[in-house]
Structures are given as C-alpha cells and as structure tokens.
Amino acid sequence: MKIPFLKFHGARNDFLLTLAPDVPKTDLAKLAVAICHRTTGVGADGWLIVDTDAPGCDASIRLFNSDGSEPELSGNGTRCVGALLAIRKPGETDFHIKTPAGTKLLRLISKRGNEYLFDMNMGRPRVLELHATVQGHDAVLMDVGNPQCALPVDDFDPNWRKLGKAIEHDPRFPNRTNVSFVKPVDKHTIEVLFWERGAEETASSGTGSTGAAVAAVARGLAESPVTVITPAGPLVLQIADEAWLTGPAEFVAEGVFYGANSDSST
Q1: DSSP single-letter state for residue 188
Q2: Where in the chain is CATH 3.10.310.10?
Q3: Half-sphere exposure for 45 (CA within 13 Å, toward CB)
Q4: What is the pTM of this model?
Q5: How far apart are CA 113 and CA 75, in angstroms?
C-alpha cells in the first residue's frame, strides 16, 4: 500500500493531504491513526482527503484527527487545502471548500514562498450557553461548526492539559468537545491555549481561536477585531454576524506513506 501525501501546516497545526483518487479502499480511521503517528507514521495532527472534482465547489474534504475520529471542521486544516488549491490554480484568489460543517469561502491575501495568507469565512458562530459550569470551572459553550468550550482565565494553570482532557470527555459532551483557555490581554487581544478533541494539545487552532474570540466578545472581555495569541503566533478574528479568520498555511513536504507495516504490498 502506497499513499502519496502533501504536508502543510496552518500556524503549526499540521496536516497530511491526500487526493481522493489516491486513497485506498480500507479502514480510513485506522489508516489515519497510522499515517498521523509521530514515530511510526509521517506525523500530523490530522489527515485530509481532498476531492478536487466535487461538484459546485473547488474541493470537498474529509478530515480525520490523529486518533481516527472525524471532526466537522478545522479552520487551520481548511486553510491548508486552500494553499493546495492556490498551488494548483495559480492566479485564482477565491476558493470554495466543502466541509461537513458547510462550504467555506477562502480569499487569498498574499503569498510569500510556500506560505499563503488567507481570510476564511468561519460561518455564523452560536453561543449555546454564556455562563456554564464544566468540571467546576466557568465556561462558555459554543458551536462554531464544531463544539467549543472556552474557559476564561486570569492566568494559565500548570495542569491545564489534564483539565482540557477531562472537559473533552465530560459526560455533558456526548461527542466530546474542543477546549480553549482564554486569557484577556487588552481590549483587542487574547492569549489562548488549546486542547483539541481527537488531537490533544495543539500549537494553534482555527476553530478554537474562533470560539475563544467569540467567547471573549460575548463576555465583554474583548472587542472585534480580536488578535488571538497562540503558541504558534497570532491569528486575527473579525466577529460580527459571521466570523472571519485571517491566518497562514504553508506547504512543507511531500512523499509517500508505505502503510502501517513495513511488508505492506503495493
């Protein structure tokens, strides 16, 4: 089994992209775990299957987390697909990408080397519960295309990863949830740490940044536009009826994955 891939990262949230015709007919969840493994596979936060022949859009995508689960949306991952489309369609700037959370519009702002900067329409965020209590902590619950739980904090607890994991698996979230820890910096800036459903700690998150910014604005902790300081650098959110995210995606590698076992057949 040989699976070609292209590797991109969106603000150090890394993804492997494979075109749909190159994907074998097999257990894709199990294959995602293998190809995303950091030591025995290629290594990534997620694996994206990209269909560039989908009707009515420039591409449709199916995303697997590194644990084999399928999330509804990844902002950083979708920008990586946008970068792939920009490479394949030089001169074009607007790309419509179909995701399980709906079709997203990406607008190419600039290109520098292998890095592409996009504005991405994240859709209409919904605050489900403005003042929730989860695992004994104050939280805001949202739907930004996928489930988000944002915890406003004065400072980051050294045990935030343990809490993030506990919240991800809290019984009130039957399909689990993404978790962000949101520290206000000033009127237009927040600092955020991310615990991603199905991928654990990540250096950044597009949907997580969207949820964090929406929560901060809804709670009166920030005003749009919001700069989200992540461990990988800043992302910028415009929050109104719809949310727009500005962030990068970079093409870093390509190759072939030979399967989970060294004796895999071609």
Answers
A1: T
A2: 3-122+249-257, 126-240
A3: 26
A4: 0.90
A5: 21
